From TrEMBL:
This is Glycosyl transferase family 2. InterPro entries: Galactosyl_T_C, Glyco_trans_2-like, Glycosyltransf_2, Nucleotide-diphossugar_trans. Residues 125-185 form the Galactosyltransferase C-terminal domain. Pfam families: Glyco_transf_7C, Glycos_transf_2. Gene3D superfamilies: Spore Coat Polysaccharide Biosynthesis Protein SpsA, Chain A. The keyword Cell wall biogenesis/degradation does not apply. It comes from the Bacteria.
Length: 270
């Protein structure tokens, strides 16, 4: 059985769309919604929602996605955990595709994320595939055995309580534990990335800072090069991106903000 773990914070309309998309999906599954500091009536609405599948509600007090996901994993009854945020709307066959991916042990299955046309090139998470790296395993559309999740200690909600960093941190530990990362094209979902355009630069800066903290946590240069935060690379980015970012289109502003966040975090720690 799959346990779908959905952290949510004040996005009731998106959450409703997600749950509606899960109605009628084939396969044995439960859904665990972790309402993290919600003040928009999400909890009351969920208590009345007539779900056509097993639905469980947990509440946490605004402690962030990493903590909320860990809390959902603790009570999950499924052998497989499927992490998927409230702004990720699954397409038909999503559950079944993730279930088929776990024939082999220690599999981390990453589904395909699609962006609405208006968010193309914005920096919001999209994985067209089929090339897959360990850092592509995010809380948007990723499943793995509960036993493997527990083996590596789950999400680090201490170092990564805010935005960013918790996903590659978990994925790095999964890689070190011998996990097999597979891309599951059939497990498609639309990443609505709610209000991303209005917050993209702030998110990029926070992500850069979080990834620099991740590099410092493990002191592994492979992390820094993979996530684009190695000090040598940052010097090049900070030197050339202000003049060349227009060549990258909308992505250029995102990359510069990301580099700034990483550079500021690097300077703070020196």
């Amino acid at each position: 059985m799959i346990s779908v773990i959905v952290p949510t914070h004040n996005r009731r309309s998106l959450l409703e769309r997600k749950l509606q998309a899960l109605e009628g999906q084939p396969g044995e599954f439960e859904v665990i919604v972790v309402a993290d500091g919600c003040t928009d009536g999400t909890v009351e609405w969920l208590e009345r929602y007539p779900a056509g599948f097993p639905l469980r509600l947990l509440e946490t007090q605004g402690k962030g996605a990493a903590y909320a996901r860990n809390r959902g994993a603790e009570v999950a009854r499924g052998e497989i955990l499927l992490f998927s945020d409230d702004d990720v709307i699954p397409r038909p066959g999503w559950i079944a595709a993730h279930q088929r991916a776990h024939a082999a042990p220690k599999t981390v299955a990453v589904g395909r994320l699609l962006l609405p046309p208006g968010l193309k090139g914005s920096g919001a998470a999209e994985l067209p595939g089929p090339t897959l790296f360990w850092w592509n395993a995010t809380g948007n559309n990723t499943s793995l055995p509960k036993s493997l999740f527990e083996e590596v200690g789950g999400y680090d909600s201490t170092h990564f309580a805010g935005y960013g960093g918790e996903d590659p941190d978990l994925a790095y530990r999964l890689k070190k534990a011998g996990a097999r990362f597979v891309f599951v094209r059939e497990a498609e979902a639309i990443h609505e990335a709610w209000d991303y355009q209005n917050s993209a630069m702030g998110r990029a800066r926070k992500a850069g800072a979080a990834h620099m903290r991740l590099y410092r946590k493990y002191k592994d240069a492979a992390i820094a090069w993979a996530l684009g935060v190695h000090p040598v690379l940052l010097v090049l980015k900070m030197t050339f991106l202000p003049w060349t970012k227009r060549l990258l289109g909308p992505r250029g502003d995102y990359e510069l903000a990301y580099a700034w966040g990483a550079w500021e975090e690097y300077q703070t720690a020196r």
